[in-house]
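It is worth pausing here to work through a concrete case rather than discussing structure prediction in the abstract. The textbook approach is simple: state the sequence, then state the predicted structure, then interpret. We follow exactly that order.
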Amino acid sequence: MAAAGPSAASGTLATCIVRRPIRAGRTGVSLEPGGTHVLVADVFGAAIYRVDLASEATEKLYQHRYGINSAARDSRGAIWFSQSAHNTPEEGEPRLWAAVDVLRPEGALYRLTVREGQPAGEATLPSPDGAFRFPVPR
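Step two, the predicted structure:
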């Protein structure tokens, strides 16, 4: 997988190559505020990876219960991520696409607190019931 984005420090194009195989579907790549790392969301393996752009070192930051669509770090260091379906790594791709075939209210937006560069506990749901709402066609 290759991901590219502008470097905040130099304004040049930065390229990141994850050399070791990661079982899943990378669905979201975002540049962190400092411009030296990217976050990679994994929709089938339900994980968030952090990749150092200079060394290409990759670490798994967080393992979620369901697939993750996208992840981004805010200016305070917290990681926000979205899930669109209740697809587990074991169920894989078929369960993800089942949520597209039959409308299911399974989407959610999570906030993961980070302390000293590492996740601090479980991700939380910032809304009272844990979901953002989509209009349901009638």
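Step three, interpretation. The chain has one domain: 2-119. The two ends are 40 Å apart (CA to CA).
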